[in-house]
């Protein structure tokens, strides 16, 4: 499918110096607002970007949204969010990544 190929090959590529994020359209706002499947990751190394976060957490389920919090200058604040399609995927990610070392920092 063309959309899947675009998502895989262009996600996080640079456009005018900024990384673009490509996600599947989620028309049901109730899914976003419930918070189900949404996890918070803290103590991230500043070198971890959106793509690295996505690559790390995509092994546990279908990601709807993934983002590193940034300051006004575009530098990482050391935390981020991953929103999974299912609560089970989020629970699985927490089970496997909580306390793990990413770039020598325990998350």
From TrEMBL:
Domain (RRM): give its ranges.
37-107
Q: CDD domains recorded for this chain?
A: RRM2_I_PABPs (cd12379)
Coiled-coil intervals: none
* SMART domains per record: RRM
Keywords on record: Repeat, RNA-binding
Q: What is this protein called?
A: Protein phosphatase PP2A regulatory subunit B
Which gene carries the instructions for this protein? PAB1_3
């Amino acid at each position: 499918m063309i959309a899947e190929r675009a998502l895989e090959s262009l996600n996080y590529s640079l456009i005018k110096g900024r990384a673009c994020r490509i996600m599947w359209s989620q028309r049901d706002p109730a899914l976003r607002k419930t918070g189900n499947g949404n996890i918070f990751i803290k103590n991230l190394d500043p070198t971890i970007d959106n793509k690295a976060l996505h690559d790390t957490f995509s092994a546990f389920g279908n990601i709807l949204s993934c983002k590193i919090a940034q300051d006004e200058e575009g530098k990482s604040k050391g935390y981020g969010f991953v929103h999974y399609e299912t609560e089970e995927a989020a629970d699985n990610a927490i089970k496997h990544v909580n306390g793990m070392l990413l770039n020598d920092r325990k998350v």
